[in-house]
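Write out the 3D structure for:
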Amino acid sequence: MAVISQNSFKRIEKDRFDSDLIIRPTITYWQDAWRRLRKNPIALASLVILVLFVVMVIIGPYIRGYDYTTIVAKNKNLPPSSAYWFGTDNLGRDLFSRVWLGARASLIVAIVCTLIQIVIGCAYGGVMAYFGGVTDNVMMRIIEVITSLPSLLITMLVMMVLGNSLFALLTAMCLTSWCGTARQVRGQIMQLRESEYIMAAITLGASPFRIITKHLLPNTLGLLILNLASSIPDYIFTEAGLSFLGMGLQAPNTSLGILISLGQTTMDFHPNQLFFPAAVLCVIVLAFNLFGDGLRDALDPKLRK
């Protein structure tokens, strides 16, 4: 019978088979969201387009060096060329510069309206969800009354009273838009307020304002980012539609809706005056929507692996 000596066994290092060895490094929620967003080529392409769009609305009106407000009668209705990349309008102004100037105005309106919507919606929804009871019921009925009114009718009435100005447009577009955000924040906070850390904060004597602003609202950041990404294209399209119908900004102001409205009158003979502002509007709205879809998938905790 063979005798097995101790030299017949080979020692294996314990560290190589340590059951506590972490194979994958621990990453945070936001790091994982960014990792998943990078794996979405459509979302990344949309993000690149949006970055280029922001750069162009800043420097685009000045690239050609033309005065986009001065009327030059001899240059009116010129087709696209090396001198005028998008051609000229019916008053001889450089259309390339005016398109990016109009896109700047549309983007500013969209961003301001979105920020107002998020601020009011967060404050209103946070108060509803935290206090609950009678406060929640009364504030919820107010939202239902506001949302039951046709938003287009409210917009028309506000524009008729305040006139076709930027302030009137912002007021009309923000008057009812915050209701959806308030409902979303209310639902999210109602789930969070039963958490143990919220109970601990209440036990320690934290005020309702501190609990809402320091604990509840920061945990709805993912929801607010998605709301931001989806609201901006909606506002851009809404502003363009209102200006096209004559209920938004009007000349001498410039926006994509105004340029599309002016181009529509000359589209039979000079289609470039309609095509370029409409193309910029469609590409920007599409890029925002695709990026919002990718961002929603990246921030969804159910998809985290």
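Residues 46-72+99-303 form a domain with the MetI-like fold fold (CATH 1.10.3720.10).
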